[in-house]
Every structure is written in structure tokens, then in C-alpha cells.
């Protein structure tokens, strides 16, 4: 997971920045009251006591398959992985007796082309920093793991086994804090709608787009991790990291005939007291006034041995900058278009991904509060990525990214030029030594991914060279990042 954006900086930097297995079965016809109550209680419990989709060993143990069954260069999902997610993380063959828990460690090293003014972060040097970037605990899989049939009668167990969980609690080794991370509970089933085979479900989560089955929307988009000890551009759209952990959303989705995917949801900001209780600091964040609708539609189709997807997604929110109730609201609307093509042939797995997000913002409240000089502006983010995996073991990825928008010295206060414009490349090499064989026998299906990432900036917050008087060029922020993902 990436470092959280600085939500105190400005409106844009965020006020906010194929093996047989059992599938979901039809809903039993008896005991509905108890089951509805169990679902409500379970949802409230998970939200009150919360514990990326990574290639989690708890999922692999639940299905008795290696991670490569659902992923290419993880966490990129393949067709099987998308079906697993659509089925609410509940597919399984009931062979494993282990609970649905997993642990992730992410030790890392960060080097920037030039030293950063001051230190990279409290407790770290201005350059060449080692860190335990993250330590995460997951509860992920069927709600009651493999134990539902031992704890409940057959009908109740059948219903509960259609409820799945992805719950992550993370220690941030840079900020040195614990907090809940991407968290979701969903119910999924299969049926027929107007003679169309349909997989459908409902979800409750804390980050818009984490429910999406493709790797083109923000939460699971490349790069899947990055250094919290390197400079990053100031600007980002609201849907791209501006709400994670601060909100709760309820939605419903359906996949028709394995071709058409539709998802609609509503999000609202969680109370400040609750955010503090799960490790999130609400200071300076953009608070949603009322409810913010989220929408998603996608079409997918096999093409010459590949799987192709094209879609639209978006979100619209009235927000109170800094949770301030005195100045009215801003209006922020994000529109996204995405496409993905993926092909596996012999030892080769290749995925192409494209995402463009256009944001239009009316800063009625922010301008009144002196946070922006303009009444409205726009921002566009574009990412084009090619990810390749050979022999399920050696991987590489290249991404071109670009952010462009209206200049505003107050909205982009951390930018010397007042511009949000940034662009460059991300180059990444990966080695997955246990991807095919799994981990040790005493804790099977463990995974290791070693990554070397290099971020190149052609333009950084409007600047290309040190002619802006700062003495720091865009290339000074170029970042070499080495990281190990150790998941067991």
C-alpha cells in the first residue's frame, strides 16, 4: 500500500493527495431472520474491530491452490482471481483447517538522486534510508474460515459461507503508527436475471474502488507500493487516495454473462472519534456532506486468447474542507475511463493497463476559507502500464504517468510553481522465488516478492529544472526503491 497523502496541505493535496472448487450457492429458504441478524452483527463487529488484494496465503490455503492460480505478477488478478473476488472471497474446497489469517512484512531501502532538504521523515536521514515500511495483519477469506459447518447447522453455515472478508491492519514503519487499512465485507451469490447468468453481491468497505475486480482503478492500480521516504507530487484526484480509511461505503454489484459488470455505491465520512479509534487522524481532511455516489460499469470479452476490458467509473461528492462547517461545501466530481488487456501463453503472462481520471472541482468553500485562489479548476491523471511475468517467477513493469491541471498557488502550496503538473516513468523488476512451489510445509502457500523500482520524474509539481530558484530539479526526486514483500 502506498504512503497516505498529506491531507493538511491544500484542497488538491487533500484537505485531503482451472481447478474445481465450490462456488456460492443459492440462499437457503429458512431461518432468514437469524441470518439477517448475523450479517448485521458481523458487519458492525468488523467495523468496530477492524483488523491490498495481495496474493494472500489465507486465500491460497482456503482454495488449496498456489497464488499463481489467481494472479500473474501479484497483486495483478487473472480471470480466476477476478472470479474469486466477484464471489466475495468465498470460493474454497474445505480442505484447509487453518484460520483465514496472514501476515505481511515489507522491509525496504530508499535512495533519492539528491538529498532531501532536512530529513526524509522524523527519525530518518536525508537520504539512503532503510525501513520496515509495513507490517500487516490480515483476516481474509470466508467469514468463519473453515469452521462454519462446525459451529452452525447446515443451512446457516451455507449462508455464512457466502460472506467473505478482506481486513487489514497495518503498522506504518515510517509514521510509526498502527491503523486499519483496506477493509471490506461482502456477500455474494449466483443466479439468473432475465435469462442472464449473474454473479451478484453487496459490500461494505472503507475505500472507493477497492471492490473492483480489475487492476486499473486506484486502490489496486500499479505501482502497487512506493516509498514513504521519497518526495511525491502534490496533486491527486479525490478518488485516488483522498478518502481511504476515512469513509464507509455500502454498494451492490453484478456481473452478467461474464461480460457486463455494474457497481453502484454510496459513501459517507466516518466520525472523527471513530477514525481516531482505528488509527486515522481526521485533522484537515475533506469531510463528505451527506452521501457521495460511486458508479462503475465495465465490459469484458475474450479476444484472440486474451481477456479485454473497457469501463467507466466515477464519484461525486460535496465536501467540507478541513471538516469546517462554517463556509459551505466544495463540489468535486471524478470521471474515470479504463481499459485492460491480459494474455497468458506458455511461460508468458502480460497485462496492459490504462486509466485516465478527470476531476472537476468547484471550490466555493475552499475559496472562502482562503485555501484556493480560484472558484473552480480541473485535474487529469493518466497512467499507462505494461506488466510482464515470465515462468511465473521473473517479472517487470513499465508505467508512464502524467498529472496535469489548473495552476493555483494556494491549492498547490507545496509546489513552488503553483502548478500540479508532473510526469515521468516507473520501472520495476520483480523476482518471486516461491511463486510456483509455495512456502514451508508448516505454513503452506507463503509468498515472497523482491522488487527493485526506479521512479523517473521529467516534471515534478510544474518544475523541470532548478530555474524556479529552489536549486532542486525534477530529476533530483528520482527514486530507487528496493522492497521485499514477505507474506505468510
Provide an overview of this structure:
With 488 residues, the chain is mainly β. The protein has one domain (32-487): Porin. The protein is 11% helix and 41% strand. It is built from 7 helices and 17 strands. It has helices at 32-48, 57-63, 79-86, 148-151, 154-160, 272-277, 364-368; strands at 101-112, 129-142, 163-172, 177-193, 196-205, 247-256, 260-269, 287-288, 292-303, 306-320, 330-345, 348-362, 376-390, 394-405, 422-431, 447-459, 479-487. The chain has a 16-stranded antiparallel beta barrel. A hairpin with a 2-residue loop joins β11 (330-345) and β12. The longest helix has 17 residues, at 32-48. The chain is globular and about 65 Å long. The protein starts with 31 loop residues before the first helix and ends with a strand. Residues 1-9 and 14-54 have low confidence and may be disordered.
- Beta-sheet strand percentage? 35-45%
The CATH architecture: Beta Barrel
Strands side by side in the biggest sheet? 1-2-3-4-5-6-7-9-10-11-12-13-14-15-16-17
List how many beta strands DSSP finds. 17
Q: What's the average pLDDT?
A: 87
Q: Domains counted in the coordinates: how many?
A: 1
CATH superfamily: Porin
